[in-house]
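Project standup — Tuesday

K.O.: blocked on the structure for the chain from last sprint. Re-posting the sequence here as requested.
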Amino acid sequence: MSTNSYSVHLSRQPEGDTTVAAVRDFTLTLSSKAGDSSVGFNPVETLLSAAGACITSSLGLVAKNSDVALGDVKVTVTGTRQSDPPQLVAAEVEVALSSPETDKKLERVFRIAERSSTILSTLREALELEVTWKRLPDTDA
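H.V.: unblocked you, prediction finished:
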């Protein structure tokens, strides 16, 4: 089994409302103020975004390697948080795809991508996770 290491450096900003995460030449500003949604993504929203980005990335790679055409990919991730102890207890990931391919081909690509997603695999060990896909409506006139 091979492993990779990842490192993100975070710094809470002096005003206390935000934290800046930095990796390579990129930064991401996150909310550090509990209950204040006006400052930016909170940590839970950031984790849910990571899940959505990971399945999107996996879908692109699997589709390319399988020579399956993908059009739009839209992902909605919803989490359920309990207060005591504070933790996510469930998440739902809904992937919507447009493609000229058959449902059978899309199902195959989706299932491989789901198994290949690092974040989804990690979340599956920690909470109840439901991952589904559907076809986006054809928008051709």
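K.O.: great, moving the ticket to review. The longest helix spans residues 43-65. The chain has a mean pLDDT of 93.
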